[in-house]
């Protein structure tokens, strides 16, 4: 803990040297591999500090004080993400993601920029605050493709869909099982002057919708797959390490000839080789095109937590 001030300063200077500002005001300022069990994301003057290990109350106070002394942030919110928290049934939402900042004036809704695209962030609302910084170059890639018909599955706040729309895609459908994040996605569209037709923000289970699109004979030129690595539903447990290849197979009937699939997986326990092999095993006709890099504000890891891959038929 004693060298936290030095670690923070070094990490901050490293981000400064990337020259992300002013076009990008949302970035990772401190990653787990450089830190003491914590990460720090920044949106403008607001920091979002996440703890991945348990700290005593005294240690927490030392961390907050050091952060306030060393970094030029007005307000900092806290998220607690210790692995054990998932197993503690009575862990309160307020403890995991306190609504109020640990210091500074509340900034419950703020607008952040990523390559000049605007996004709405809610730093105190939930563990996820509106966007994942590590996917920045994948969103850029989607914008640059300008594929005519795009399907953004597991859309969350519709970052991929928004970028496809901004890039000139004609039809963009976002699918998510949460109405709240789809509404949030509409707010992101509106912030950037894009139209929000209800038909483009589809509520429901992705696998059900893949079947429905197939039945309707809909076709897409780019399909974005970015599921959570683990989920439990009425249908059972879904795990990226065993079920991802099958999910890809379910998208193929609605992927146009010459279409592309952006398959992403955020799971440190799966290597890039394992991820590609799994997709290949279940989909021998699909061709691997390339992988996309994680944003440069995430220090290079030997085996990245995030796999971003492009496939074609
Ligand atoms: C990892 S986030 C996706 C991040 C998003 N692609 C982005 O770039 O910001 C996972 C999302 O999948 C949604 N989700 C989880 N299971 C789902 C399902 N079976 N059908 C539809 N959406 C689902 C969650 O509501 C959540 O918004």
UniProtKB/TrEMBL annotation:
Keywords: Methyltransferase, S-adenosyl-L-methionine, Transferase. One of its GO terms (molecular function) is methyltransferase activity. GO terms for biological process: methylation. Residues 86-300 form the S-adenosylmethionine-dependent methyltransferase domain. InterPro entries: SAM-dep_methyl-trfase (IPR019614), SAM-dependent_MTases_sf (IPR029063). This is S-adenosylmethionine-dependent methyltransferase domain-containing protein.
């Amino acid at each position: 803990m004693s060298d936290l001030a030095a670690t923070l300063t070094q990490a901050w200077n490293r981000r400064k040297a990337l020259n992300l500002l002013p076009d990008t005001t949302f970035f990772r300022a401190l990653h787990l591999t450089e830190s003491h069990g914590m990460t720090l994301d920044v949106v403008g003057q607001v920091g979002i500090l996440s703890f991945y290990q348990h700290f005593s109350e005294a240690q927490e106070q030392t961390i907050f004080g050091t952060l306030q002394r060393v970094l030029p942030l007005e307000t900092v919110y806290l998220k607690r993400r210790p692995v054990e928290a998932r197993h503690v049934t009575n862990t309160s939402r307020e403890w995991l993601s306190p609504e109020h900042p640990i210091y500074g004036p509340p900034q419950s809704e703020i607008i952040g920029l990523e390559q000049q695209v605007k996004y709405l962030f809610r730093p105190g609302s939930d563990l996820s605050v509106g966007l994942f910084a590590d996917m920045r170059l994948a969103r850029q890639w989607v914008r640059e493709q300008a594929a005519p018909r795009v399907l953004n599955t597991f859309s969350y706040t519709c970052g991929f869909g928004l970028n496809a729309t901004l890039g000139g895609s004609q039809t963009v459908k976002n699918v998510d099982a949460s109405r709240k994040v789809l509404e949030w996605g509409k707010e992101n569209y509106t912030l950037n002057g894009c139209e929000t037709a209800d038909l483009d923000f589809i509520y429901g289970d992705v696998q059900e919708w893949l079947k429905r699109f197939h039945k309707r004979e809909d076709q897409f030129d780019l399909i974005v797959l970015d599921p959570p690595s683990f989920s439990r539903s009425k249908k059972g447990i879904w795990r990226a390490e065993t079920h991802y290849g099958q999910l890809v197979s379910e998208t193929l009937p609605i992927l146009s000839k010459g279409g592309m699939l952006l398959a992403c997986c955020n799971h440190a326990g799966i290597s890039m080789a394992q991820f590609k092999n799994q997709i290949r095993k279940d989909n021998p006709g699909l061709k691997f095109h390339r992988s996309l890099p994680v944003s440069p504000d995430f220090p290079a890891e030997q085996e990245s937590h995030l796999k971003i891959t492009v496939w074609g038929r």
